[in-house]
Write the structure tokens for this entry.
Amino acid sequence: MPTLKDVARASGVSVMTVSNVVNGRPRVSEATRRRVLAAVDELGYQVNLTARSLRAGRSGTIALSIPRADHPYFGELAAAAADAMRPSGRHLVVEQTGASREGELSALSQARLQMYDGVLLSVVGLQDAEVARLQSDLPLVLLGEKPMPTRLDHVILGNVEGARLATAYLIERGARRIAIAGGTVDPTDQGMVGMRTAGWRAAHVAAGLAVDDRLVLPPAHFEMAESRERVRAAVAGGLQLDGVFAVTDQVAIGVMAGLRDCGLRIPEDVQVVGFDDLAVSAHLWPGLTTVDPRKDLVVTEALRLLERRMSGVEAEAEHQVMPVRLKVRGTTL
Amino acid sequence: MPTLKDVARASGVSVMTVSNVVNGRPRVSEATRRRVLAAVDELGYQVNLTARSLRAGRSGTIALSIPRADHPYFGELAAAAADAMRPSGRHLVVEQTGASREGELSALSQARLQMYDGVLLSVVGLQDAEVARLQSDLPLVLLGEKPMPTRLDHVILGNVEGARLATAYLIERGARRIAIAGGTVDPTDQGMVGMRTAGWRAAHVAAGLAVDDRLVLPPAHFEMAESRERVRAAVAGGLQLDGVFAVTDQVAIGVMAGLRDCGLRIPEDVQVVGFDDLAVSAHLWPGLTTVDPRKDLVVTEALRLLERRMSGVEAEAEHQVMPVRLKVRGTTL
DNA sequence: GTGAAAGCGCTAACAC
DNA sequence: GTGTTAGCGCTTTCAC
């Protein structure tokens, strides 16, 4: 690979002048510029970004760290982030942590993060305290449905509100036995499952309805397949239900399959609402009514916070709860 | 951030010794090692990967470049690549090109690619000739369903064979009017659509069936929504069909919705087969019969070829056509 | 407008 | 075992 030096020699100027031309800095005579550009072309010079980063201290690259790209919510988030970043001229790379604590710890080794100008970190496995230990002078914005260290910027969905909206809508449409697929009976759960279960509860309370803990179907790790099986087992076990709030669309897809395995019709026998508004959800049959987490807003807000940190602002950390909205489709009456 | 020099000063040794300790090289006395490690801990030293890359000429990182992470096929491919790479100790980052020629050209600027030890490049928009122009001394393996420059390693799916399998199965199950959703009537199309259409044709020919070009429904850019609309329009326009081979699962999902919009039952009235075996396809209702492109094999093979290039082998480029298999589920009789 | 010098943080090569 | 030297390719600073 030719270097600045090679180009400088070929065009009879100093490396500094080549650098100035290559970076489009002013104060270079037209003649010199042309000569240098010709040499660049001739030699096929390409800037070495590693050297530039080392010297300039900036890489022009932002990282988005997600558990897995095959989890559609995160795949869609990554695409939204790339779209939102395109106009800024910055470059985005996606890191996958593998959805495990160890994966997150290794993908997020300080050393690696140093290579980026800023990091959007979607936390799943790490504990609050482990996140807090992350080095403080790296521009970092957290994404994730759990409590995070106060000291760090954090963008979180309206989990409770979304679940409440979804459940209230089921109640409004006449459902009275509303299961929560992927919920928890543990009132101390502070994570995504806990918050969405809290919304489900809140909607019942607001409507003056009793909450039946038998309607709480625990979370499933292999989301679609396991959720399907759980619902099938619950119905086979005699559980009466006329509505399901699924904590994610993936769970909802499993739930829909499970209900149909039992010969139940959607929405006539059981109405279903999900959470995530995946692209595929609109094209299921019937279309899935779901909570739209406004991935576009999440990403825009996260990037705003990140830009602020990257520009060196020392302001107090912000913890933003993003608005959500219900998208009504065919799985509700 | 503390540097090697800081650690060296703090522990009273030279930077080289610190480097040796940090990199676990032999020939360091136990006492020194302990002293250095203590200083590393105390100062919170983290290696600067940018400097290491510049000096060592390797970054330990491989890039996978895909059009968009929200396209499930590519999201799943990215996750498979991360899984396959984990044992190797190398690091994977995902770049999104935005599915456009310009996006690919910019994401794939030589400069950026230089930063990686190797690149898996999933080509969509670029022309054969543009790919050929990529610098030749970068370890690079191409993925993608179109012809590629002979000089470069390339892993491609069994597109024709998969489409043939899918269509032959529909014929075997009694379908006689089999549309191809997302196909083309252009016999010169060398890309994914052309190859999969060729397989659809071949199955008809092999079975002694006539091919009716009215059954070719052209590709849809907004895959699910537009495919749904196309099928709906075709059926409304009086097209008779009892089977659909969709060129991708995303198209198949749109097709299923479109058929149902028309009051047709799947598989009783119309059987459907897709291509991609997306995770969601197994949990549609009924489950989608589809061609499994063996993403695991694709990724393993691509990494094998890449490792070979990275180890400096100068062998002839390989063009591997990966085997596919049919996964039979509920959308066929 | 252009250039010389210094150095970002690290490691390869070799001397001791 | 440990230290010294040199330099990866670039940009910052400042002199001319």
